[in-house]
Amino acid sequence: MDARTWIKELDKGTVRPLYICYGPEKYRMREFIDYVLRKCVPEDVREFAVTKYDLTETSLDDVLEDAQTMPFMAERKVILASNAAFLTGAKENAKVEHRPEKLLDYMKAPVDFSVLILTVDADKLDERKKIVKLLKDNGSMAPFVPLSADDLLQWVKRQAEALSFRFAAGAAEALLLSAGTDLQALRSELEKLSLYAGSGGTVSVEDVDGMVARTTEQDVFMLIDHIVRLRKEKAMTVFHELLLKKEEPIKIAALMTRQFRMLLQVKELERQGYSQQQMASQLGGHPYGIKIASEQSRRFSFEQLASILSSLAELDYGMKTGKVEKTLGMELFILKLAV
Q1: CB 266 within 8 A of CB 279
Q2: pLDDT at 277
Q3: Which of 85, 93, 170, 196 has the most CB atoms within 10 Å of its CB?
Q4: What residues pair up with 167 in beta bridges, in sequence order?
Q5: Of 128, 138, 70, 77, residue with least CA distance to 104
Q6: 158 and 88 belong to one structural domain
Q7: Of 159, 187, 211, which one is at a domain's C-terminal end?
């Protein structure tokens, strides 16, 4: 099961008695929970019809007892219970004991006036457990995973549309390069761009460059993108901006090493036939970052990437031992690559 299927069901008026949400993408999880609330409980009665529990402090028995209690001033109520660690293989540190079998008993005859949402702070559930297998089979659980590269780009464009502005060609991609792939951070930058553009306005690549704050990691990501595209002036501009932010050349070199190593790994995995989603899982990166790394790696051969990593190691040693002046050494390295 996946969250998209749940949303389609909700749109058709089908509400499940139980939703178990897990996975690394917490922003999408919160979006889904908010959607359930909008569909199930009118805003003016949410104070009475929405209850929140922390399963590290409250027993599952108490939560299920609440679920079987009629709602007050509402036709349906929603119960949110976080930290359902009993569904994972992790050792529980809860102050209370849970009896997971009671959840299976409840699901044999769930009430129609309660919606129970359990959230799990884990990327995976323990599918060796009977309860996990049964709840998975009946469609009660779904993972919230990072969006694919294409889906992330479309998500950014839909968010802009909802905020009443649009992106000029290349501007949405520029936002992802500058702000990264964290949905909460992207949402904040989108709201900022919305205020700048105004209703019905258009945001250009130049607007994104001028308005969006970049982390050091994203600056280095852009620095390498300029190098790959042979834009040495822009690459040098980004490097000097990093220096103005008091970033040490040794740190910049370390981040460049990490990114070029990623290019080499992506190139090798592509050769082995991995998809971008598979590579993201294997390397622990976001699918959009893997997509960009894949595009960047095509500029280099395996031998060239290995040589770049070797040169970065020599540069790092030279800067740390004082044999190479840090800023000059980095400038020469960037100019050598961006030709």
Answers
A1: yes
A2: 84
A3: 85
A4: 203
A5: 138
A6: no
A7: 211
Query: To which residue do tokens 């009118």 refer?
Result: 42
pLDDT beyond 80 at 93: no
Final residue of a structural domain among 211, 230, 261 = 211
pLDDT digits (tens, 9 = 90+) for 20-79: 999 999 999 999 999 999 999 998 899 899 999 999 999 999 999 999 999 988 899 999
**Two structure tokens written together for 15:** 């509400």
Amino acid occupying residue 160: A
Domain of residue 164, CATH code: 1.10.8.60
269: tokens are: 């995995």
317 and 262 in a common domain: yes
CATH number at residue 60: 3.40.50.300
Residue 252 corresponds to which amino acid?
I
Interatomic CA distance for residues 82 and 109, integer angstroms: 23
pLDDT for res 202: 95
| pLDDT band for position 97 (cuts 50, 70, 90) | confident
What are the Cα distances from residue 25, in Å, to 21, 135, 140, 181, 184? 10, 21, 18, 11, 10
**Same domain assignment for residues 61 and 74:** yes
Question: Considering only CA atoms, which of 249, 232, 242 is closest in space to residue 334?
Answer: 232
Judgement on whether residues 100 and 59 belong to the same structural domain of the protein: yes
Question: What radius of gyration, in Å, describes the C-alpha atoms of the chain?
Answer: 25
Backbone angles phi, psi at 122, to 5 degrees: -160, 150
Whole-angstrom Cα distance, residue 40 to residue 76?
7
Q: Per-residue pLDDT for 337 more than 70? A: yes
Q: How many CB atoms lie within 10 A of CB 158?
A: 10
Q: If we measure between CA atoms, which residue out of 54, 176, 168 comes closest to residue 118? A: 54
Shared domain check, 158 and 79 = no
Range of the domain at 193: 149-211
- For residue 332, what are its two tokens? 């020469």
Helix (H), strand (E) at residue 205: helix 205-211
